[in-house]
């Protein structure tokens, strides 16, 4: 019995090795010669992050802590979208209004007024209303302090490990800080939601409250304004931020030819400079990097002494750059589990030309085993 089991495993291994040898023929891409140099930017820190693969395509001072100003509201919006219904009523309490200094208020709201969450998100993300941030925080957690705990927990879940949040709006506090890497990752979580992309990608809005009052706003964000020379077709959404201490910040999400990137820019000297830096960095990433989309299902039919073995697999996404050496993807069988009745599963790890290892799980069945 032991000898028969050993023989079966050897034969199964032969099946997998045949599969692994076939796999590189379907993932080897064409590559160009040389990658261009990244652009010079004026802002103190920036990161360009490819959201499908989790790869950083550009970084300048990526892990130094900076004040985020109103780009904080991206995380506030994320928590609201994940925890509330869009038609849920947000109440503007006395605290939500009075905790914001007069010069930092955006609406002529009185305590007791209310609006649906969708309108509150519009107020939060387009005119960057600080009162909306406080009201959302109170509604979800009961206080800004309790909401800050949720912010830090959600940031950790997004992989933002070097940031700390105190307020839902981003007004100045020495203990409220972020890094460019962390903000790019937080934004990557937020843009998964249609409602965030829709609102944060709008250049104008009508905000309706529960009292049938209407507030009209448009954005000063040149990436989104159709009358701006800096408007670009690849821009999906974008959020600005500014305080005297933080300088200027801009968080943007762009899509082009299958590549999806979040760009975090911190410590800028003007709104114009962070917009220009964002355009330079995103267009550099789109030009210098090629998205090799290999997510389609593949099937290999292997004939061997055990019988016919049908292997179905899904290849992972990979970002490949022109500077990578022209060598094929290497495959190695890294896991094998025999499940019985002719079924086995495992993982083939593909090492891309840039050295990145990507696992490709598979399940296979011997459809006509030999007696």
Q: Which residues sit in consecutive blocks of at least 5 with pLDDT less than 50?
A: 1-33, 293-304
What name does the CATH topology of the largest domain carry? Answer: Beta-lactamase
CATH 2nd-level architecture of the largest domain: 3-Layer(aba) Sandwich
Number of helices: 9
The top-level CATH class of the largest domain is Alpha Beta
CATH superfamily of the largest domain: DD-peptidase/beta-lactamase superfamily
Instruction: Give the distance, in angstroms, between the N- and C-terminal Cα atoms.
Output: 15 Å
Largest sheet: 5 strands, antiparallel
Description:
This protein is of the alpha+beta class and 371 residues long. The chain folds into two domains: 99 residues; 242 residues, DD-peptidase/beta-lactamase superfamily (Beta-lactamase). Helices cover 29% and strands 29% of the residues. The chain contains nine helices and 16 strands. The strands form five sheets. It has a five-stranded antiparallel beta sheet, with helices on both faces. Strands 11-12-16-15-14 form a five-stranded antiparallel beta sheet, with helices on one face. Helix 2 packs parallel to helix 5 and helix 2 packs parallel to helix 7. The longest helix is centred in the N-terminal third of the chain and has 21 residues. The radius of gyration is 25 Å and the shape is globular. The two termini are 15 Å apart.
């Amino acid at each position: 019995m032991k000898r028969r089991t050993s023989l079966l495993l050897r034969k199964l291994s032969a099946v997998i090795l045949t599969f692994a040898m076939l796999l590189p023929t379907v993932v080897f891409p064409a590559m160009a010669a040389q990658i261009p140099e990244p652009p010079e930017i004026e802002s103190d820190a920036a990161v360009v992050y490819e959201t499908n693969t989790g790869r950083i395509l550009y970084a300048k001072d990526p892990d130094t802590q900076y004040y985020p100003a109103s780009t904080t509201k991206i995380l506030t919006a994320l928590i609201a979208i994940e925890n509330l219904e869009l038609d849920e009523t947000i109440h503007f309490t006395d605290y939500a209004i009075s905790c914001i200094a007069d010069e930092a208020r955006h609406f002529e709201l009185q305590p007791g007024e209310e609006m649906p969450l969708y309108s509150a998100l519009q107020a939060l993300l387009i005119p960057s209303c600080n009162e909306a941030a406080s009201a959302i925080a109170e509604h979800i957690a009961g206080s800004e302090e309790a909401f800050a705990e949720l912010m830090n927990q959600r940031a950790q879940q997004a992989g933002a490990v070097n940031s700390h949040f105190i307020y839902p709006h981003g007004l100045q506090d020495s203990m409220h800080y972020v890094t460019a890497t962390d903000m790019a990752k937080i934004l990557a979580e937020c843009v998964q939601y249609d409602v965030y992309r829709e609102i944060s990608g709008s250049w104008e809005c009508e905000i309706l409250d529960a009292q049938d009052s209407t507030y009209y706003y448009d954005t000063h964000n040149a990436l989104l304004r159709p009358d701006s020379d800096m408007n670009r077709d690849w821009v999906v959404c974008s959020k600005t931020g500014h305080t005297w201490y933080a300088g200027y910040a801009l968080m943007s999400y762009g899509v082009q030819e299958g590549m999806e990137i979040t760009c975090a820019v911190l410590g800028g000297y003007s709104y114009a400079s962070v917009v220009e830096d964002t355009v330079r960095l995103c267009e550099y990433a789109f030009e210098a990097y090629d998205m090799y989309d290999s997510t389609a299902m593949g099937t290999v039919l292997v004939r061997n002494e055990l019988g016919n073995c049908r292997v179905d697999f899904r290849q992972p996404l990979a970002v490949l750059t022109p500077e990578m050496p022209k060598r094929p993807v290497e495959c190695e069988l890294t896991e094998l589990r025999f499940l019985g009745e002719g079924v086995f599963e495992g993982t083939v790890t593909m090492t891309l030309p840039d050295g990145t290892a990507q696992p490709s799980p598979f399940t296979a069945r011997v459809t006509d085993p030999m007696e």
